[in-house]
Amino acid sequence: MNNTKITETGNSAQSVFLNISQVDMVFPTPTGGFTALKEVDLQIDKGEFISLIGHSGCGKSTVLNIVAGLYQATKGGILLNNKEVNEPGPERAVVFQNHSLLPWLTCYQNVELAVKQVFNKTMSKGEMKEWIEYNLKLVHMDHAMDKRPDEISGGMKQRIGIARALAMQPEVLLMDEPFGALDALTRAHMQDSLMEIQSELNNTVIMITHDVDEAVLLSDRIVMMTNGPEATIGEILDVKLARPRSRLSLAKDLEYNRLRSEVLTFLYEKQRKVENISSKAVKPPAVVKKRANETN
Ligand SMILES: Nc1ncnc2c1ncn2[C@@H]1O[C@H](COP(=O)(O)OP(=O)(O)OP(=O)(O)O)[C@@H](O)[C@H]1O
Ligand SMILES: [Mg+2]
Fold first, then answer.
1. Which of 60, 72, 275 to mutate to test the pocket of ligand 1 (most atoms within 8 A of CB)?
2. Which of 31, 107, 118, 292 is deepest in the core (most CB within 10 A)?
3. What is the whole-number distance in angstroms between the Cα of residue 24 and the centre of ligand 1?
């Protein structure tokens, strides 16, 4: 951790499971430092499900990468179980925004690599095989386990990335828009599976999403970020809907709809992007009109 030491304020700070403390992130650019994050501060309990929501480019992936230990905060830092996070570790599995499978390995082998890293000493070869196949089944990808990443679709690759992360049984699951590339049915199935897995294993989850319904359905808290530069946490919404949650019964639930509208208000009123895309409609060049006239 650079510059600033995390301040521990007695017992209360000590008992925080995952402490994101006063994080600044400045990226070097050819024209000088770009302050992406400013004083991002969030304390997360064990077993909590946190959604991170905010407009494109505000700094969500940057926060996740710092918690993953892939980026080093410029100021402040991360404490997990009171230990500083300075590098990646198997107790923090990441599902990346751009599925990042090793292209020379099959889907099975991609998951196997992660499983070996974590369970080499505690599982027999047979148990590992069973565990890998179970996780591939969970994401409905057991039929393609011997294919390589370039032989499957983007959504399928994303599902293998999710299986790989879940198979590590991480204490902390970090997911960057994990269901963004999936069709609606698979997405709903994956959301339900994730809720079940999390309630069984009590993983702590930080999930980035652009989907307001997904955030309300899955989360204990929705953390809403302001627009960058110098992005920070704008508001935090407590989601106290009873679990297990069902999307069908929640659709008509008053509290569900109130929460939904709070997030929408934050995104599209309070943090409305300054540039209004529709008011700057892009006109096609003259050649398009000319060609259209010619073909009519
Ligand atoms: N390595 C880097 N060097 C310079 N600037 C960066 C770097 N990585 C990210 N940024 C900038 O930091 C800001 C936050 O980026 P980040 O990827 O965290 O946004 P995001 O909220 O995840 O966006 P999206 O929803 O589009 O994925 C952006 O303005 C981005 O251009
Ligand atoms: Mg991102």
1. 60
2. 107
3. 13
Q: How many angstroms from the chain centroid is the CA of residue 217?
A: 15
Residue nearest to atom 1 of ligand 1 (CA): 27
Residue 1 has pLDDT above 60, yes or no: no
Specify whether the CB–CB gap between 38 and 27 falls below 8 A: no
Domain ranges of the chain: 46-65+83-91+170-295
Structure pTM? 0.88
The answer to whether 77 touches 23, Cβ cutoff 8 Å, is yes
Distance, in Å, from the CA atom of 24 to the CA atom of 230, rounded to the nearest integer, reads 8
Per-residue pLDDT band at 155 (split at 50, 70, 90): confident
Q: Which residue puts its alpha carbon closest to atom 31 of ligand 1?
A: 57
Ligand 1 binding pocket, CB closer than 6 Å: 27, 29, 34, 36, 54, 56-62, 97, 228
C-alpha span between 38 and 59 (Å, rounded): 10
Ligand whose nearest atom lies closest to the CA of 53: 1
Q: Which residue lies with its CA nearest to atom 2 of ligand 1?
A: 27
What's the CATH superfamily of 46-65+83-91+170-295? Answer: P-loop containing nucleotide triphosphate hydrolases (3.40.50.300)
Mean pLDDT of 102-119: 96
Average of pLDDT values for 109-137? Answer: 95
